[in-house]
Amino acid sequence: MLQATRVATSNGAVGVLDWGGSGEPLVLLHPNGFCAGLYEPLARGLESRARVLALDLPGHGASTDPPTAADYTFSAMAATVLEVLDRMGIDRAAVVGGSLGGAVAILADRAQPGRWTRALLAEPVAFPGDALSSAPGEENPMAATARRRRNCFADRAAMITSLSTRDPLSQLAPEAMEAYALWGTVEGSDGIRLACDPEVEARVFEVSSTHDGAPGAWEHLREMSCATTIVAGRSTFLPDVFAQQAERVGTPLVLVDGGHFVLHEQTDRGVELIVQYALGADAHSLTLTD
To answer: Would residue 200 count as lying in a domain?
Structure first.
């Protein structure tokens, strides 16, 4: 049975969704601007194979907004994830990370090698420094886009209708969009608002080019202490970089049809990818299609 809790850490409270289940722990880390609940459709297909947990990264979902800019760095988020696992008594776990969540998983391995048993990273934000650089004096373009994001909607149905027409969110499977609308919003007297304020999302993008962000994750890919797989969509940005990521971890790139949110675009396929590459199932027992 799903339990939604908050775990106290030195960086504030962290929202945790725990589906229970049998087997080894499986930790799910979400992209920037989203929430743990984005994984709900996938978790339903995984709870018979693992103890499935998804964490709201700091400033997202039910987690506390970090107090300082330094607390938004990927490495600070990784430290918070590790503290949550400590407090929950989880010594080792498999991990799945999408986009920002992938980079956080990498830097958690840098902080505590051997904590992850296996890692499936879906288009992780692990890039060379020049890949994310902005012109001097110019705002980070991803941060600028985040700050323009609509934050309030009349209700969840209106949110789904609005976001389902806009790339890249339009690529989410309907059940993933519904899970985001449920878990990634807060109700108010005038409707709903995003649980992750666009300003928080923007600040995360702004720190992504620092050593405690994407470049640090890029550097550590060669040093991952567990079996690591990179998965990417064919219709995505920086395709050459994801191939280079796979080369750095020493495994072939897993390329499937789709875009940046590749795990959440076809739920059944996302479950199969996680089972095969994060939980270590025999590849011959699966019928993965692209």
So the answer is: no
* Cα–Cα distance measured from residue 290 to residue 282, given in angstroms and rounded to the nearest whole number: 18
Sign, CA dihedral 281-282-284-290, equals: positive
User: How many structural domains does the chain have?
Assistant: 1
**Helices of type H across 116-213:** 141-147, 156-163, 174-183, 198-207
Residue 287 has pLDDT above 50, yes or no: no
Which CATH number goes with the domain that contains 233?
3.40.50.1820
Where do we find the tokens 């049809």? 257
pTM: 0.95
Helix (H, G, I), strand (E, B) or coil at 82: helix
pLDDT of 133 > 70? The answer is no
What distance in Å separates the CA atoms of residue 216 and residue 128, rounded to the nearest whole number?
8
Cβ-count burial 200-212 (b if 16+ within 10 Å, e if not)? bbbbbbbbbbbeb
C-beta of residue 203 within 8 angstroms of C-beta of residue 71: no
Q: Provide the CA 82 distance to its chain's centre, in angstroms.
A: 15
Q: Is the dihedral of CA 202, 121, 93, 74 positive or negative?
A: negative
Cα gap 82→36, rounded to integer Å: 16
Hunting for tokens 């850490």 — which residue is that? 9
